[in-house]
Amino acid sequence: MASEVMMSMEDIRAAGSRLDIDFSEVDLDSIRLPPGDDFGIISDDEDLKEEEELEFEVGFGNIIVVDNLPVVPKEKFDKLEGVIRKIYSQIGVIKDDGLWMPVDLDTGKTLGYCFIEYNTPQEAELAKEKTNGYKLDRSHIFAVNMFDDIEKFMKVPDEWAPPETKPYTPGENLQHWLTDEKARDQFVIRAGSDTEVLWNDARQLKPDPVYKRSFWTDSFVQWSPLGTYLATLHRQGAAVWGGATTFNRLMRYAHPQVKLIDFSPGERFLVTYSSHEPSNPRDTHRVVLNIFDVRSGKLMRDFKGSADEFAIGGTGGVSGVSWPVFRWDGGKDDQYFARIGKNVVSVYETETFTLIDKKSMKVENVMDFSWSPTDPILALFVPELGGGNQPARVSLVQIPSKEELRQKNLFSVSDCKMYWQSNGEYLAVKVDRYTKTKKSTYTGFELFRIKERDIPIEVLELENKNDKIIAFAWEPKGHRFAVIHGDNPRPDVSFYSMRTAHNTGRVSKLTTIKGKQANALFWSPAGRFIVLAGLKGLNGQLEFYNVDDLETMATAEHFMATDIEWDPTGRYVATSVTSVHEMENGFNIWSFNGKLLYRILKDHFFQYSWRPRPPSLLSPEKEEEISKNLKKYSKKYEAEDQDVSLQLSEQEREKRKILKEEWERWISEWKRLQEEEKLERQKLRDGEASDEEEEYEAKEVEVEELLDVSKEIISFD
Amino acid sequence: MRPILMKGHERPLTFLKYNRDGDLLFSCAKDHTPTVWFADNGERLGTYRGHNGAVWCCDVSRDSSLLITGSADQTAKLWDVKKGTQLYTFNFDSPTRSVDFGVGDKLAVITTDPFMGLPSAIQVKRIARDPIDQAGESVLVLKGPQGRINRAVWGPLNKTIISAGEDKVVRIWDSETGKLIKESDKETGHQKPITSLSKSIDGTHFITGSLDKSAKLWDTRTLTLLKTYMTERPVNAVTMSPLLDHVVLGGGQDASAVTTTDHRAGKFEAKFYDKILQEEIGGVKGHFGPINALAFNPDGRSFASGGEDGYVRLHHFDPDYFNIKI
Q: Which GO terms describe its biological process (chain A) (predicted)?
């Protein structure tokens, strides 16, 4: 502890006078400690570290105050103490004499509260979290607080004072980027220590800078789901940035050592996550999750616990926390969020940030869950139990009623994965089943039609049942999906539709394209187009495919590409090579039909991310009207495009002309200088006239060479 | 046309040089034997035996009679081109990195590496008409640049010496007084060690290649930066077409960092750029390792590349090449 080590100035003076030292003559700056020995004097930088530990070692962080206990007379004191001890010693080790329940000196009755001192602040914290609100009986609900907090609470004024209303200051238009006249999209890149936001100016075939900053973030940056904010991560917490013309810091969220963040889909809330090394290496990591209100920066709820509690999967054994821990329901209102625990799914609502119905949903052995992207419907997966006696099942649960809408039992299942279509109309469940011998697995799909009456389920099996499924993807907002399947290095890609020609509500196969070097699928956000990509081992093969016409528009390659992202409008595709590779770092921008527009190389390229757009404000009718009369609307833009491309080629011609002229000037200057030096050069060469010979004449010389002579007898038939 | 593969060296190539007539191609490699080839069909004509270390550089006199080679065995040697015999040996205290004959072939500039505490140096030797009169003394010794000087060549009329090397700076020295005349700008110049330097056929401008993945074109007299060619790989070798406005860059990942997954990953291509517009025109693939040496035939109709893979590839251009329009 710092105060024990450091002497006060008085002590030093006293010691000085004892030793006959006049401090006014001492040059303190000249004093140097021998290296490697600090004599217990803490240097300034160590001081910082010391202070952090301070909070744990001193103070009363390990003491809690339990209020709302029953008031009992002397006779019952021991009994009450016993009850309290029983409750609180379950949570941690109470210190000897660590339980103190004061009594009224006059009456001998207890005062209705007690103090409990644990060995460690962690235990105290845990006890507070676990027992605050504990119902001893109907009229005694425990109110548990940290002793250190009591002082803070005491300062709360007795009289309620109305909060100060701050004068209204108009905020910036955070959606300003959407009003770009050229309807361009923005993206953010991180390379080296720089983070940069740029316009994708595809017409000019180059990016147009918006904002650039070094050391903007400590780890990565993330757009909010509707593109309003750009979040950065720092040692002290997270921050969001945005604004009309540039990027200003709009809000900060304190969370030391934050590692991961996640926005709710409607951008109302921000979840931050950090994991801390335990003091005892045998313990698991401590995990802290905070949920903030994005606009006000207010901490709405925090969750603390061991990493095990937040690890996904009911059966346990899965290490690490899978992110996001909290999954938000798909509605725009950010009403619910849920997390999975051992045998439970906890669904919270954001009105009060408490569990719905005050309790978690009990689902024995639940493994995985996912929200519908649009409705408060949860899909749950429970694996097989008891060696197949109890089948695996997928069930759809309505929130907040917790009513089961549909359930499907599945047999000999090894694994399940759920894929929602973006409009929440369909749910595809990929089911890996064991073959009869249990030695291998094969895959099929269960397709749920959520929006239809009684939610009909259809089973889809691939023609070749043994094909491995390499990738699956729904067409955004559409009724089609693509599957990469096969066992060899050149798998097949199949397209299916949830509709048939006669709209009978049957799934039908559209086509299979054979032997593709692809392992990932990227649908355009507008549907219809898809990029079949061979990333990682396949060196960045790209195939741009039109699913309406079932034809390949273009094949290309971005060598070593690691990431692919469509722009939010579906007009452009960005492929990038991030610094997992040493070479080729940078990104390419392609048109939707696979034409390479431009290519930017950046060393140490870490991240490429398009700025998302909020959903279109046009009504579906209007959208349909536009797509029907596309010719009329597109005229204006086509003219603009033409202008720009004319202008570009004009500029290019101009530039080339200037360069050529400049070069000609240099050449003539050189010629002049060479001419001036001609005689001198000739002298250096002992009179040999050389300059003429430097101009070469190519002479055609024919050389015949005998390579081989062989004799062959050809027989006549 | 299909390139001619010339396999004669057992170690990575280091340097290639055509004679003025363009009928002979001299090659240096880390094996100790410089070799001369017929530039037309790639036939091996002979070798020059006598060095005891990697040979880094060579130059041939205007009349193709005299060859000078610089080697890691701390010598530079003069050879009779025709007979293949050693005529003279210059001894140094450190490896010689680059050699270049001046106009008239009566002077040679030789650079020596920093070695055992000795700094790097640029040394000027007089070359005697008759090898019997050859003396070993240096006429001039220039010191100053940090690290290796990868290349030093003569400026116009032998009045200046141009040097470039590991310290990223291109310098012009007065070959008479040994004074430093000009230095390239740190901001606009190369950002990483310069690996190679090659003069235009008339010596009015030169190109430098650097590990900073770029090549730059400079005016020989004023050291004005004329052009910059950006590429995706460290540049080990540069050359210019004497016929068309093309420059060729060769390079690739460092041999130690070459991936084992895909030969394309190293980009061991000779890249052609339009000299004036600074735009990439095309590439010639083929080597299994980085390209260490490039040379254009003085007639501009063929070029040779030498790689870490030990091969020299001789490329005669197709007629299409001469009609490239961009």
A: formation of cytoplasmic translation initiation complex
B277: nearest CB among A656, A670, A698 = A656
Whole-angstrom distance, CA of residue B224 vs CA of residue B201: 18
User: Which of A542, A527, A466 is CA-nearest to residue A497?
Assistant: A527
Distance between CA atoms of A185 and A597, rounded to whole angstroms? 15
Q: Which two tokens stand for residue A224?
A: 């909010």
Q: At what angle do helices A630-676 and A620-628 cross, to 10 degrees?
A: 60
Nearest to A449 by CA among A410, A497, A494: A497
Question: Exposure string (b/e) for A305-341, b if CB count within 10 Å is 16 or more?
Answer: eebeebbbbbeeeeeebeebbbbbbbbbebbbbbbbb
| Phi, psi dihedral angles at A421 (to 5 degrees) | -80, 150
Nearest to B296 by CA among B263, B320, B321: B321
The answer to whether B204 contacts A674, with C-beta atoms less than 8 Å apart, is yes
List the beta bridge partners of residue A342: none
At A624, the pLDDT band (50, 70, 90 cuts) reads confident
End-to-end CA distance of chain B: 21
Q: ω before A73 within 30° of 0 (cis)?
A: no
Joined together, the tokens standing for residue A374 give 């649009």
Question: How does pLDDT run across B63-83, given as a tens digit for each residue?
Answer: 999 999 999 999 999 999 999
How is residue B312 written in tokens? 């020299």
- Cβ count near A608 (within 10 Å): 24
Are A358 and A367 in contact by the 8 Å Cβ rule? The answer is: no
> Which strands, in side-by-side order, build the sheet including A269-276?
A260-263, A269-276, A286-293, A299-306
- What pLDDT was estimated at residue A45? 47
Q: Decide if A659 and B276 are in contact by the 8 Å CB cutoff.
A: yes
Q: Would the CB atoms of A663 and B201 count as touching at under 8 Å?
A: no
Q: Are A412 and A433 in contact (CB under 8 A)?
A: yes
Place of tokens 């519908």: A372
Report the DSSP beta bridge partners of residue B243: none
Reported as a single tens digit per residue, the pLDDT across A490-531 is: 899 999 998 876 666 788 888 999 988 899 999 999 999 999
More confident residue, B112 or A6: B112
Count the neighbouring beta carbons within 10 Å of the beta carbon of residue B233: 22
| Range A93-100 contact pairs with CB under 8 angstroms and sequence separation of 24 or more | A93/A118, A93/A119, A93/A123, A94/A118, A95/A62, A95/A119
- Number of Cβ within 10 Å of residue A483's Cβ equals 26
- Using one digit for the tens of pLDDT, what is the confidence trace for A138-188? 888 888 888 888 777 777 777 777 777 777 777 788 888 998 888 899 999
Q: Round the average pLDDT of chain A to a whole number and report it.
A: 83
Phi, psi of A76 (to 5 degrees): -95, 0
Return phi, psi of residue A370, to 5°: -155, 150
Tokens of A567: 């722009």
Q: Which residue of A has its CA nearest to B297?
A: A696
Q: Is A677 on the interface with B (CB under 8 A)?
A: yes
The reply to whether ipTM tops 0.90 is no
Q: How confident is the model at residue A34 (pLDDT cuts 50, 70, 90)?
A: low
Q: Give the three-class secondary structure for A61.
A: coil
Instruction: Name chain A contacts of B226, Cβ cutoff 8 Å.
Output: 666
| Residue B211 DSSP class | T
Nearest CA in chain B to A663: B276
DSSP-derived 3-state class of residue A166: coil
pLDDT at site A1: 41
C-alpha–C-alpha distance, residues B308 and A544, integer Å: 38
Q: pLDDT-based confidence at A50, cuts 50/70/90?
A: very low
Residue of A664, A695, A205 whose CA lies nearest to B275: A664
Residues within 8 A of A (CB atoms), B 77-106 only: 102-104, 106
Q: The whole model's pTM is what?
A: 0.68
